[in-house]
Amino acid sequence: xxxxxxxxxxxxxxxxxxxxxxxxxxxxxxxxxxxxxxxxxxxxxxxxxxxxxxxxxxxxxxxxxxxxxxxxxxxxxxxxxxxxxxxxxxxxxxxxxxxxxxxxxxxxxxxxxxxxxxxxxxxxxxxxxxxxxxxxxxxxxxxxxxxxxxxxxxxxxxxxxxxxxxxxxxxxxxxxxxxxxxxxxxxxxxxxxxxxxxxxxxxxxxxxxxxxxxxxxxxxxxxxxxxxxxxxxxxxxxxxxxxxxxxxxxxxxxxxxxxxxxxxxxxxxxxxxxxxxxxxxxxxxxxxxxxxxxxxxxxxxxxxxxxxxxxxxxxxxxxxxxxxxxxxxxxx
Length: 332
Prior knowledge:
Blueprint: E1 4-7, H1 16-22, E2 27-32, H2 40-53, E3 58-61, E4 63-65, E5 68-69, H3 90-107, E6 112-113, H4 137-154, E7 159-163, H5 184-189, H6 192-198, E8 204-207, H7 224-234, E9 240-245, H8 257-267, E10 271-273, H9 278-291, H10 316-327
Parallel strand pairs: 1-2, 1-10, 2-3, 3-6, 7-8, 8-9, 9-10
Antiparallel strand pairs: 4-5
Helix pairs in contact: 3-4, 3-10, 4-6, 8-9
């Protein structure tokens, strides 16, 4: 069986316990959070120490812009993506944001930010809200596509989330189990549009912890109907499928962490995330060790394709991008 685990650490440096768990071959990724971050230099040193131990690990962060931005001290405070849409040159600004974000993330030694958000802003979901580019599916697709162009130009793989769309369900899957009662036809006509059109450009995809009862009784991240029949089959998606955090309340319908990661991989995920709960991560790891999983080869496509170096702010493209965002009053 193919599959792997992404987990996190507690502090700004690796402990002996961290080193021991990161040596396990079933662990193929690590995500950092605000508690792991002091400034760019410290993040670079942390990433270097991780790569010295496991050079093959995928190192990730959530650096979307707006309120979801883990790297702050010493980094550009990007706008929420929804703020771009009202500008006449919104696509150019989205491209600049993608390039800026990716450049800073790559420069400290990380591989990916889990971005862009492809959910639609239906004015219903507080957890999505301004993280979405737009409420109109065509407009959201165009803006997200431009953002992806910026990511790729900087050397970062793009990960679309939260398939097939979290914007209609009102509950927050971090603390509840959201449901979306619409039919598959309604979802296809709206929320699936960005995922369908951008699937060829996405190296990673993250499904939602949302139940769509008219399609399947399981949340999308545990659903073979969504992941195998629709995402892989109909959309012909060939990239990496990451689970959303299996510690979130929206994942608890499946059981404990061991049952959740097995269910996610069985449904079609390539990597299960278990965050903010080391005991749960250890339980998930034990299950993967018993299953005898091997990390899928396509994880390699998520590794950074460029390293900007530490003097990237001298790059004329950097200065042009910053100037454009300042002129639009999107950053200070």
